[in-house]
Amino acid sequence: MAKDQTRVLCVGDVNGQFEQLAKKIALINKKSGPFDLLFCVGEFFGPNAEHNESIISGKIDFDVPTYVLGPCCSSTSTFYPEESVEFSSSVTYLGKRGILNTASGLQIAYLSGVESSTSNRFRFSEEDVEELLVPVRTQSGFLGVDVLLTSMWPAEVWKHAHNTPSVEIAGSRNHRVLLEPAQHTTRFIGLAPIDNDKKQKWLYAFNIQKKMLINFIYSQCVKCPEMN
């Protein structure tokens, strides 16, 4: 692997199964790592308040620095803080929306929740999307973010053209769309819930190079579905 690449793990809905996730991540990191980042793009907390408290109080750590998106339903929304916070040295809650700049130079855009006409702790509105896009529209020479994390599956992701993130990861549904695989285009990955009955893929690993190191942009790529 090139020294300027970052190794990333992503998981779908955890639903409070933190110990199982920790064991799986430890095994993968030992066997195939080390990995630099772990993103949880689905519903992180579950119905068990005691299990959730083990994360909130910092009792559970992961072997890979872990970043968590916000809630997708009202039943778990009370467990999430209103703002970004570090639960422990290895687990960070990102908050509802924003752009994370990693130590390796990656730009990670994220949008939590489900779409609605009004915004609350587990829903995002058009206004939230507009706020997220402010840096995109104002930054001179902006090439696009490296990774886009969303809780929702974007509609008709395969139909759009130009200006994409390198990778988009979404929770709630297991699917993979790879467009123009020989080029620096968007890889869209939808991840299923952890330990699901259908044995669908809930964990995905990839290497990524930050866009500022790529000195050209292909014309045959897909438009970021969240900007449509």
TrEMBL record:
Single GO MF annotation: RNA lariat debranching enzyme activator activity
Gene Ontology cellular component annotations, sorted alphabetically: post-mRNA release spliceosomal complex
GO BP: any one term? mRNA splicing, via spliceosome
Q: Which InterPro entries match?
A: Cwf19-like
> Could you tell me which PANTHER family the record lists for this protein?
CWF19, CELL CYCLE CONTROL PROTEIN, CWF19-LIKE PROTEIN 1
This chain's protein is named: CWF19-like protein 1 homolog (inferred by orthology to a C. elegans protein)
* Source organism: Nippostrongylus brasiliensis (Rat hookworm)
